[in-house]
Amino acid sequence: MIETRGLAFSYPQAPVLSFPDLVVPHGGTLLLRGPSGSGKSTWLALVAGLLTPASGEVVVAGQTVHTLAGAARDRWRARCLGFLPQKLFLSEALSVADNLALVFFAAGLPVDRGAIGRALSALDLSSLAERKPSQLSGGQAQRVALARALLLQPKVLLVDEPTASLDDEACAAALALLQRGAAEVGATLVISTHDARVVQALPAAQTLRLAREGVA
Ligand code: ADP
Ligand code: MG
User: Fold this and answer.
1) 140 is a domain residue
2) Are the beta carbons of 86 and 45 closer than 8 angstroms?
3) Is 13 part of a structural domain of the chain?
4) I need a labelling partner for 98 at 20 to 30 A (CA). Which of 8, 56, 143, 183 fits?
5) Tens-digit pLDDT profile for residues 13-42
6) Is residue 137 part of a domain?
7) Which controlled-vocabulary keywords does the entry list (predicted)?
8) In the predicted structure, residue 215 carries a pLDDT above the cut 60
C-alpha cells in the first residue's frame, strides 16, 4: 500500500512540485503519467525515501518514509522496496550475479546465493550470471535490474519509464515481465510513463496524472 498526503518537493531555486493525494491498495498497479519534467522521477524518489518532502508525507506498507533517518531508511528501502530506475546502475566491476549480491549488503543481510540463482532463473538469465553488464544487450540489462529489484520480494516495485527505448515487441515483453514479477512477490507496482503503449497495455491500472509544472 502507498499513501501520500499533501506531498510537495522543491529542488533548490526551482518552483515547488506539488502532488495530488493518492492511495494505492496493496497489490495494486499505478501508472504515473505526465510529460517530461512533470515530476514523475521526483515522485518515485520521494516514495523510495531518496528525497525528503518539503511538506506532506508518504506512507509505504505502514511505514512513514521520511521519519526514518539515514542508515535505517537505507535498510528499509533495501528490504521493502524494489526500484528499477531509468539508468540501471549496474556495477561494471561486478558480474551479473554479484550485482544481485549487493542487494543483500545494502539490506544488512547475509548473501543468499540460492535466492540469487532463483531470481536469475525466473527471468531466464541463468546463462548470463557470470557476465559483466557491458556484455549484455539493453533488454538483458533491464531484466537483470528487474531481477535485482525483485530479489528480496519487495512490498512495492517502482519502475521509472521502462519502455522508453524499446520497440513494440520488447515493450510488451517488458510490461508482461513487470506484471508477472510484481504478482509473484505480491508487490504493489508503480510504473512511470509517458508511453501510450503502456497505458493501452494496462487499461485497468489506477492512474496518477501529473501536469507539466507538477501542480496538482
Ligand atoms: P519527469 O521524471 O516527469 O521527467 P522530474 O521529476 O525528473 O520529471 O523533474 C521534475 C522537475 O524538477 C523538472 O522541472 C526538472 O527539471 C526538475 N529537476 C529534476 N531533478 C532536478 C535536480 N536534481 N535539480 C534541480 N531540478 C531538478
Ligand atoms: Mg523522469
Assistant:
1) no
2) no
3) yes
4) 183
5) 999 999 999 999 999 999 999 999 999 999
6) no
7) ATP-binding, Cell membrane, Membrane, Nucleotide-binding
8) no
Ligand 1 pocket: which of 7, 11, 38 to mutate (most atoms within 8 A of CB): 11
**Of all atoms in ligand 1, which is nearest to the CA of residue 13?**
25
C-beta of 13 in contact with ligand 1 (< 6 A): no
Q: What range does the domain containing 43 cover?
A: 2-92+154-215
CATH number of the structural domain spanning residue 203 = 3.40.50.300
Q: Rounded to an integer, what distance in angstroms lies between the CA atom of residue 154 and that of residue 74? A: 14
- Give the count of domains, the chain: 1
CB neighbour class for 145 (10 Å; exposed up to 12, middle 13-18, buried from 19): buried
Answer yes or no: pTM beyond 0.90.
yes
For residue 2, give the 3-state DSSP assignment: strand
Best substitution site from 9, 13, 16, 38 to test ligand 1's pocket, by max atoms within 8 Å of Cβ? 38
CB 42 less than 6 A from any atom of ligand 1: yes
**Residue 177, by phi and psi: left (phi above 0), alpha (psi -120 to 50) or beta?**
alpha
